[in-house]
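FW: tagging you since you asked about this chain on Friday. Here's the raw sequence from the shared folder, copied in full. Didn't touch anything.
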Amino acid sequence: MQTSAEAGSVTTNSDHYLQCIELLRAENDRLRETCQDLENMQRVLEQAVGVNNSNLLHAEMSSMELEQVFQACTDAMWVVREDAVVVRVNAAMLKLLGKTQEEVVGKLCSTLIDYRKCDAPACPLIQGKGLECCQEIDIQFSEESGETRHFILSTAPLVTLDGSPGIVGQFKNITSRKKAEEELARANAALERIARVDGLTQVANRRCFDETLQREWRRMSRERKPFSLLLCDIDFFKKYNDTYGHQEGDECLRQVARALEKSALRPADLVARYGGEEFVLLLPDAEISGAMLVADRILKSVGALQIEHRASTVSPHVSISVGAACIMPGQAATPEDLVVRADQALYQSKDQGRNRATASPFREV
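HL: got it, structure written out here
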């Protein structure tokens, strides 16, 4: 028969056992919850890894696409760090430099291209520091053959893969455009010359004379200096044409024009064909005495040509009559006044027998 002490011991052991069972059940529940949490975390991590792998794949594909675009670009391009070291270059740039990738990457840009702006404030690398926008400069490369190629260098700030600041440079070849611009400029200059030069005698034409007269008149008015003008007319030129023909007449005009140009010694002096057989000389900053010296040279130069003129009644050779006038430009006078006074003096030369120069009285207005 079991004693009361033994019965109490059994009861105590049973309670302890039940407590252990409950603790184990609680721990099991906690472990089950932990496992569930870990499974959930694993699923989240797997999803995150999947997204990250997708992003990495997308980034790699984008990088490959950008690299293909970079390499396929027909314009030469490179990436230069802040310390002027080239870190990336495309095929067009290698072709431009005539070098391999190994000969370019890791080298100083100034040792690869001399565009005469390195180490100067105009250097695109120096200019690009701290800027957030693109800039463009014109550069040119001189080849061993002597040919010069023109480029527009476009640069923009860039942060390289290692975090270093720098620039990306794009070289656009504009040599053909430059040549076209130069040809156009030459053509325009030729057209401008045609528009301002007499086709027969190659001295200034009437349009050029009118423009120069107005411009020099304003200048002499500002500077309060005298302005002289010579009006010249070949004596009996119509009779010369009738006697020798128009071809000989044209040659006579050309020779007289050259003689007039040789008589006008200063850069500011202008010889122009005024019309028909008439020529005019503008002599800014010249007094009437100086104008008459030029007129005397003209008479001698034309006479020295020794162009036969059997129909002339004043000389066996082509001669010329000159009218000289001088005005100190002011508010009361106009450029036309100067021309009128020279024309009046020319009329006097003809009236007095031709082959001479006559001066109109000096006038200050």
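FW: The domain at 72-178 is CATH 3.30.450.20 (Beta-Lactamase).
HL: agreed, and Residues 231 and 314 are 19 Å apart (CA to CA).
FW: great, closing this out.
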